[in-house]
Amino acid sequence: MKRLSFLVIAIVICVTTSCKKENSNTGFSQDIKDLVPSEAMNAMRQNGMTIYEGMKPPQIEGIYLSSEHILFGSSDKDDVIGKRYADYRYQFFEQDVTDLSVKTSYKGYSTEDGSLVDQASGLGSFISGNGNFFSVFSEEHGETSEGVTYTWLAIYSGEITEDGIKNLVNSFYMKDKDDPYNKLVDIGTVRVFKDKDGVSETKGSLRISAEDKQDFANKIFSAKRMGEK
Q1: What is the pLDDT of residues 81-98, one digit of tens each?
Q2: What is the 3-state secondary structure (H, E, C) of 13-72?
Q3: 147 domain residue, yes or no
Q4: Which domain of life is it from (predicted)?
C-alpha cells in the first residue's frame, strides 16, 4: 500500500512538473493580455501577423534595421500590398527577464533622401516567446515629420540570430490619433509589415550616419542618370 502511495505521488509530481514546463511554451503573461485586447490581436493575425507565445523569450536588446520595409497585410482595402515604406530602425532595451518587460523606440527614414519622417517610443511593452523566437507587444506614441501624433498597439516578431533578427515582422492597430488632415489610416486599422530580405541587421544607433545619407544621395543621383538615358 505504501509503495502504491509513493508511486501515485511520484506520478503526480512528474505530471505537475511536465505541465509547468509545457505551459512555459504557450500563452501570454497577464500584462500582455491587459495591454492588447483579443480583438486587436486577432485582427493582426488575420492580416498575416506571426505571434509567438511563451514565457521564456530570448534576449533581444539592440537596434535593428528593417529595409526594405514592405507592407505585407492590411485591413484597409485601398492599401497596396508589397508597397515599400520608409526604412525603420527599431530599438529594444532594458529587457527584464523577471516581469518580461522591455522598452521600445524607433525612427523611420525616407528612402529618397534619408530624412526623418516618423519616430515613436513605447509607453509600455512586454515580451513573449521561447528559444530564439519572440514577440514584443507595445503601446507606442509617435509623431510624423508633419506634426501628426498617434498612439497605436504594435507587435514585433522574429528570430534572434548573431546577425540580427531573422524574418522580422511587425504590425500595428491604430488606437488614437491627432490628425486634422487625415494623413494616417483610420482608427481601428491594422497594417502588417516585413523586412523584404528577411534579415534585419544590427545598427549602432537610431540615427543614420553621414555615410548612410551619402548612400541615399548616390542612389538618387544614379536613378536620375538612368532616367536621362
Answers
A1: 999 999 999 999 999 999
A2: HHHHHHHHHHHCCCCCCHHHHHHCCHHHHHHHHHCCCCCCCCEECCCCCEEEEECCEEEE
A3: yes
A4: Bacteria
Q: What integer pLDDT is reported at residue 15 of this predicted model?
A: 45
Beta bridge partners of residue 89, listed in sequence order: 65, 107
Sequence-distant (6+) residues with CB within 8 A of 3 are none
Domain with 48, as residue range(s), is: 27-222
- The letter for the amino acid at 190 is V
**Whole-model pTM above 0.90?**
no
Within a domain: 153: yes
pLDDT in tens, 123-165: 999 999 999 999 999 999 999 999 999 999 999 999 999 999 9
Rounded distance between C-alpha atoms, residue 35 and residue 114, angstroms:
33
Rounded distance between C-alpha atoms, residue 69 and residue 216, angstroms = 16
Count of domains in the chain?
Answer: 1
193 lies in a domain? yes
| Residue 5 per-residue DSSP state | H
Question: Distance (Å, rounded) from C-alpha 104 to C-alpha 119?
Answer: 11
Q: How far is CA 185 from the centre of its chain?
A: 18
Asked, for residue 17, whether it belongs to a domain, the answer is no
The residue with cell 497594417 is: 191
